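pls read this stuff:
=====
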Amino acid sequence: MINAPRPRIVNRALLLFFVSPVGAAMSLYLLLSVVPLYAISAGAGGIEAGLATGALMFSTVAGELATPRLVARFGYRLAYAAGLVLLGAPALALTASASTTAILAVCVVRGLGFGIAAVVGSAGVASLVPHERRGEGLGLYGVVVGVPSVVALPLGVWLAGHVGYPPVFVAGTVAALAGVAVMPSLPGRQPNPDKPIGILAGLRTPTLLRPAIVFSATTMAAGVVVTFLPLAVTRVSGNLAALALLAQAAAATLTRWWAGRHGDRHGPAGLLMPGVLAAAVGMLALIMTDSPAAVLVEMVVFGAGFGITQNATLTMMFDRVPTSGYGTASALWNLAYDAGLGLGAAGFGLLAAQTGYAAAFALTAALVLAALAPAWHDRAAEQSAA
């Protein structure tokens, strides 16, 4: 028996669409560290600078919550275009005013835009790639949006120091608005016989809630890593934190793509427990921060687990809804990501103040390990339903 050739994953529509998430990510990360610096340069204090990032992330969550309804009403094309405009255009206002009020207002509007773009981005990929290669398509999307975060974050700070703040704000605007030009590659509003799934309905759906809970546990650990690893290893080497974070990001990006390819062939559910276990082991091993080599290995292991759970959970959630539910599945996954990062960083800070870093890393690993319970239950439920 001759096997049918696998459908192509990369096509013109997908390549054109990738312009939009790359532009959105570049716009976000170019300004992410620059805006707090801009506020401080204008005389604001650390509290105001922190509020700028806090306002951005809070409104991002609000944008994610609203996106499924926007997609159901207007379609992917108009919703994404609105998100890109809200993300990019307000940055120009920063060239005219450095007041705290103006900065916070810009951050709120940009956060709404990024929340919309983040949700429509992964949902758009799911709608553009063949179903049998969805995991690999989402893994490729992870690589596409991951590279700008590595490049644009330090680039924005460097540009602000060498050419000033206004060019960075203009660059952030141009990067986001460039994606509007390729909106015809996305489907507009189309009639769908399936009733759209709302956020509350999604939260009441166990097949969506279980992967979201598992993913949120690993993202909490990721929030701990990006926030506190540099503080935990400063006594060992000044460059160790940067190398470790780079190793973690690279491992997560590569395994997110690999998990997609593997999941398309064997099913993504089987990757969930190994991914959680790898993330927990990598986190637990951080109690050994005195050895640079150990820290680098630990971050590779944690990054691999994080990348696997990223792809597996997202693919599973898309597989479990009709096309009318793609927006909700993407919104729930992005909410798990953002909420996990924030709660992980905030909770670890309070915990480490009482226990020290080693014990706090161990307790965080235990929290990640607890996610094996919903992962196992999900696997068992899927096998019994088959």
